[in-house]
UniProtKB/TrEMBL annotation, chain A:
Residue span of region Disordered: 244-268
Cross-referenced PANTHER family: 50S RIBOSOMAL PROTEIN L3, LARGE RIBOSOMAL SUBUNIT PROTEIN UL3M
Designated name of the protein: Large ribosomal subunit protein uL3m
Database matches in NCBIfam families: L3_bact
GO cellular component, one term: ribonucleoprotein complex
UniProt KW DNA repair keyword: no
Presence of the UniProt keyword Ribonucleoprotein in the record: yes
Keywords: Mitochondrion, Ribonucleoprotein, Ribosomal protein, Transit peptide
Primary location: mitochondrion
UniProtKB/TrEMBL annotation, chain B:
Annotated GO CC locations: ribonucleoprotein complex; ribosome
Protein name: Large ribosomal subunit protein bL17m
Keywords: Ribonucleoprotein, Ribosomal protein
Residue ranges of the region described as Disordered: 166-185
UniProtKB/TrEMBL annotation, chain C:
Region feature (Disordered): 297-318
InterPro entries per the UniProt record, alphabetical: Ribosomal_bL19 (IPR001857), Ribosomal_bL19_sf (IPR038657), Translation_prot_SH3-like_sf (IPR008991)
Family indicated by similarity: Belongs to the bacterial ribosomal protein bL19 family.
Protein's cellular compartments: Mitochondrion
Database matches in Gene3D superfamilies: 2.30.30.790
Recorded GO CC terms: mitochondrion; ribonucleoprotein complex; ribosome
SUPFAM superfamilies registered for this protein in UniProt: Translation proteins SH3-like domain
Record keywords: Mitochondrion, Ribonucleoprotein, Ribosomal protein, Transit peptide
Keyword Mitochondrion: yes
Protein name: Large ribosomal subunit protein bL19m
Highest taxon listed in the record's lineage: Eukaryota
Broad class of the protein's primary localization: mitochondrion
Amino acid sequence: MAAFCIRSMLLRNLTCQNLISADPTLTSRVLVCHQQVRGRRRTCKPPSWFSKRRVSIKQDITPENAKFIKDVIIETYKKPESPLKDGPWSRGTWTPRTQRTGVLAIKLGMLPQWTKDGKKFITTLLQVLDNHVINYTPPDEFAKSMGWKPYWGSKYGSVVVGALSCEPHLFSKSYNNLFAKAGVPPKRKLTRFLVTPDAAIQPGTPLNVMHFRIGDYVDCSAKTIGHGFQGVMKRWGMKGGPATHGCTKAHRRMGSMGGGRDKAGVWKGKRMPGHMGMDWRIVKGLKIWRIDTKYNVLYVTGYSVPGPTHGYVRVYDTVLKHKREHLIENGNPPPMPTFYPEDGKEPIPEEYLDDELFNFNNESISYATEK
Amino acid sequence: MNMFRFPVRNTPRKFKKSFGVGSGPAERIKKLQMLVTALIRNERLEAKESYCLETRGYVEQLIQIAIRNGDRHAETMEKADFWLLEKDLVHKLFKVLVPRYQNYSTACTDFHFLPKKVPGSGVQMGILELKGNPWPPVVPRQRDQGHLLTNVLLSSAKAEYRMEKKITPDLRNGDHDKLEQAANT
Amino acid sequence: MAAPCRKIINQFVKRSLKCFEPRVIPCRWSNTVRNHTVEKHRHSPLSSTRELVNQQDSPSDVMVPREFRFVHPDFLPYPVWNRRDRVREKLEREDMLKRRAVIDIPEFYVGSIMAVTLADKNAPGKQNRFVGICIDRAGHGLYHYFVLRNAIDGQGVEIKYDMYNPLLLKIEVLKLEKRLDPQLYYLRDAPLEYSTFRLDMEPVSVLKGAQVPLNAIKVKMNPRPWCRRWERHNLKGVLPLDDYITEKMKKQKQHPQIEKPWEKHDLMLKARTSIDDREVDQIMTEVYKRKEKIQKEKFQKRGQEGKREVKKAQEVKK
């Protein structure tokens, strides 16, 4: 017993040392959690490396002075000293192994559309609002950082993308400093994409809906709608018990949990009541049918993009091989590392439509002329 | 988009004990009728937080339809007759409250939290009041903040900032009053 | 007594300070933005993709006829406010107006008799024409649909049409009229003579600007069994159902959980589940202006084509 105690104390000390190590240069990388956990991390606490965002300072400022502060903020960010003034970094060429950055969109809801054959289908609208690249970390530096996972190897660097510009005096200093390199106002939401080094992007580059093209396929990852702690009928669709016939307190219960003999006991992974929703989910291989450049809206196949209306959605090139084939075969690579205004022709049309999509400006579909 | 001028819950509250245990939606409306009548009569109400916030919606809606449709509208008159249990208040609604709130662009009620009583039942109480009522204010009036250090520094910074932009050449003489005037405009 | 007093004061101070603190966002909203926040960012001067407010839409210098909103119920958006979005509704309306510029969608109501021509690959003439009475009309925006009913060879037939389906070639109103009820699904349990219309029916002309006639016919229902409990629906266009229902059913009908008398004057229920009048006015003004513009363009086009044809005819004569 004593030996066990000493060992556990030693272990605790060791871990504590690692955690508290004041000088980051001494240890190349701090603590990677290799422990595998069934399920997911269900906590509201932000991770330890998360810099605090909001500040709460009670300031008795008169309305005129508050307006003055706002004016100064707007003027400073009107012509920011963007790092882009030196010209963008050299642009890589697209290969089948390339992984470009994505964008952080907002889900607007669903609309029906029709194909040229007259088939009705549902599309989801995603708006790309005010996106900027905030930071790029090359692979070797990224491998030393906190959020790195060993199975990624040294293939990927990381790009941080932010959406929705805010006023800087709402945030803490440490959070505002994240945006100094990019020269943009602090963003409401940040996300990180893994990219290959040939798709490196300079911080401060604006991203918009033209990052994608008509007919390309994308993956969407977002958090699903949260339902809180739910019973077995809503969470797993079980049948529950009977309503009458002497049923006592078993109307919505799950029934038996396990069998007898060698199958006795509650097996791991048994479906039980618990927290439902608010979970990261990825939907892969969604086609882009329509692009609205005026409002920066993507029309994407299906109604299965996770999350509620006005939820954040990470949109990036698909990882499915068979949906990337047309890029290789046709020699039609996407804009690298993203779309720059000088790439396209001027002016950019307000709307791009897929060839198979019905344009509402056209005449009705009729088969009579085919005879 | 959202036409409410005050925060609204997605789902209504169920007053399960408004008229004793087992009260249903009919009793809820009965309770709300009494609360709405009391608020229009006294212009200020102290009740449970949930009662106050539910009543708020009904009073706001009632005043808004009264403003929009006037007293010649049969449906509006029916609603006023239903919600105001004391009938002299119908006159008050159309003759006093409608002119008072006609040009408002904000909500016509205010809500304040009251502290919880300790020791006590722990019920959250609140105050709901009509704006422009004759009672003394619930929250003490804000003192003048212009002489606080942050504001003094900010206003002088504002004056300097404006002067750098050369709004008017007269201000360069260092006339402090003029500087402040320019800063305030 | 001192300790509780201090507690009360502490709590009061805390609560009064709370209003100055930024609101703590609960976990379930951490990946979602509220509607007003999105709107703020769309118009924010800090935003790189700033959307300028279009001032042409806001002032209401045009007088929209009061019937306009009843003629075009499909332009009203889905009323659940936490699922609404201004930009999506705008894009949806654009699509609808584009489609309306191509195909003529006439004024019709539930109870009108209509003929719809639909492109059909498998039909003999590659077209399919159906005549029937409109028994329902519902859906918001591009989802809007209507249902036609007719009795063909002694068999009731109902077809649901999506209003903005590009396969729709033509919509005709043969007889414009209203009925007493918002939905006529009870015709399924009425004798077939109430829903029988000739397929070669000729259109009945209506004076322009006249009020839409109301057909106050009272349908005599078949005896039970029915597809729904019609006695609970408070139907106006049906003869009294007392002969068909039992005493127990009559009692059940008056049960408060079924009748729900408290919902009649519930102002907040109405505000939560319907779209505000002011917003309806905004939408209808926008649509009215766009429709007028489209009609003008159409007239101009027709005028130019007419002139060209006249010119051609003159050249041919020469």
